[in-house]
Amino acid sequence: MPGKPLVNLVFIGHVDHGKSTLVGRTLFESGVVSETVMKKLEEESAKVGKEHAKFAWVMDRLKDERESDQTTDVSYRFFETKTRAFTIIDAPGHRDFVKNMITGTSQADAAVLVVSAAPGQFEAGMKASAIDKSEIGGQTREHAALAFTMGIKQVIVAINKMDTVEYSQERYQEIKQAITSVLQRVGFSGIEHFLFIPIAAYYGENISKPSTKMPWYEGSTLLEALDTLQEAEKPVDISLRIPVQRTFNVPGIGLLPVGRVETGIIKVGDEVVISPSGARGRVKSMEIFHRALDKAETGDNIGISIKGLKKEDIWKGCVIGSVDNPPTVTKRFNGKIVVMEHPIGIRPGYRPVLFCHTEQAECCIEELVSKIDPKTGGTIVNHPDLLAKGDAGIITISTEKPIVIEKVNYMPRLSRFALRDMGTTVAVGMCTDIL
Ligand code: GDP
Question: Could you tell me which residues are beta bridge partners of residue 364?
Fold first, then answer.
């Protein structure tokens, strides 16, 4: 797709609101999935009485393909509109979605927030949980907050399942208003420029063609809306950073670490450093999908053979960097976080697991520095006792082992982290200071 700006897209929203269906439908209508494949999925799903899932299966199908591909954990799919190319990040229904969204497998430039208009369903997505006493809650708000925290500035709101409310303009208006207020509350600005589109993903209404069922709607279709999204700003700092996803032992090549170039450029012959181990070596050869490569840049998923590298020098979570500006290694840092989910809230002494790029480390919350207003960043209170679900704050984190992490204003891509405990994402954040 030469020439077209590339946008990384994430689909967010409450469970069952139709994210997978919309992704499948979009891939179909933009021509990635052929009529033949679609027909086959339709037959297969009908056979087991699950025709309603035929579009959602498009993504599952791709997932199966991915699982047989050993070289990368990154899950996405490309499609194009008239003027843009897109990478879809596999968010729908994925258990590790929240973690993936933060830890480098996905760096979305824009989000499609899918909100079901179906009676009861929209309300469920907006429901406040038992812990969060505010009148908005559910995954609709949670995902919107997450998107904002992760620095996504462009959101398209797809109001789905309009068929279940007889394509009612009143229902659309009601939801548009409620979602506008959610987006405002979690901190988004410029919402008047966000596009709200009434759709029926399953039936293909307002996806690539204007719907005849909603003559009252004069705005763009989903594909037209996607065409208005801007691509990511290229990282200003070009120092090399490649978080190691895994290492292989390849006959004839030897040790082959694999990862995605997050920033910078790497060429055969370059001297690189591996942090935190501190090992150094020259790049002997590189490959991308089994093809040899002289040079790789931001976004490329590559395997790199480094002269003299031993097994104990490199592991998942290490970062390959430039020798003149090596990755930052620390065991203590400050982070700005938002608490996503915790039954009682975060206190000093709490020990969750930290996920950052491909790294994973036991950690301890040493101190709650302040509670802040997520919108303005202003301090509400210094040294609070507790940060509860929905709260934002600055905290000091120490890790059991040295890890690579960068400050957000220096390298945002390597500053993001998630705190997880017992399989749920407790908080997400970004590193603001190395201590
Ligand atoms: P996800 O959990 O957000 O990914 O939701 P899915 O895409 O799996 O959809 C959940 C259910 O909603 C499925 O049974 C879909 O067939 C159904 N669904 C999706 N889009 C529409 C729609 O436009 N209209 C109706 N009536 N049902 C839909």
Answer: 398
- Among 20, 21, 94, residue to substitute to test ligand 1 (most atoms within 8 Å of Cβ): 21
Q: Is residue 125 part of a domain?
A: yes
Q: Choose the final residue of a domain: 174, 203, 226.
A: 226
Residue 119 preceded by cis peptide, ω within 30: no
369 within 8 A of 346, measured Cβ to Cβ = no
Asked if 271 and 297 sit in the same domain, the reply is: yes
Other CB atoms within a 10 A radius of the CB of residue 306 amount to: 24
Same domain, 191 and 273: no
CA of 14 to the centre of ligand 1 (A): 11
Answer yes or no: do 351 and 303 share one domain: no
Domain hosting 146: range is 6-226
Q: Does residue 210 share a domain with residue 108?
A: yes
Q: Which of 279, 303, 322 is a domain's end point?
A: 322
157 and 298 housed in the same domain: no
pTM (2 d.p.): 0.72
Span from the CA of 54 to the centroid of ligand 1 (angstroms)? 10
Which residues have C-beta atoms less than 6 Å from ligand 1? 13, 15-21, 52-53, 56, 92-93, 160-161, 163-164, 200-203
Q: What is the CATH number of the domain that holds 413?
A: 2.40.30.10
151 and 247, same domain (yes or no): no
235 assigned to some structural domain: no
Query: pLDDT tens track of the chain, all 435 residues?
Result: 346 887 888 888 888 899 889 999 999 999 888 898 899 989 989 999 999 989 988 877 665 554 444 333 333 467 889 999 887 765 544 555 555 555 544 567 899 999 999 999 999 888 754 334 333 346 788 788 778 776 788 999 999 999 999 999 999 999 999 999 989 887 888 899 899 999 999 999 999 999 999 999 999 999 999 999 987 766 555 799 999 988 988 888 889 999 888 889 999 999 999 999 999 999 999 988 778 999 998 877 889 999 999 999 999 999 999 999 999 999 999 999 988 778 889 999 999 999 998 899 999 999 999 999 876 778 999 999 999 988 889 999 999 999 999 998 888 888 888 898 887 778 888 899 999
Give the number of domains in the chain: 3
- List, as one string, the DSSP characters of 225-294: HHTTPPPPPPPS----EEEEEEEEEETTTEEEEEEE--BSEEETT-EEEEETTTEEEEEEEEEETTEEES
Q: Are strands 279-288 and 329-339 parallel, antiparallel or unpaired?
A: unpaired
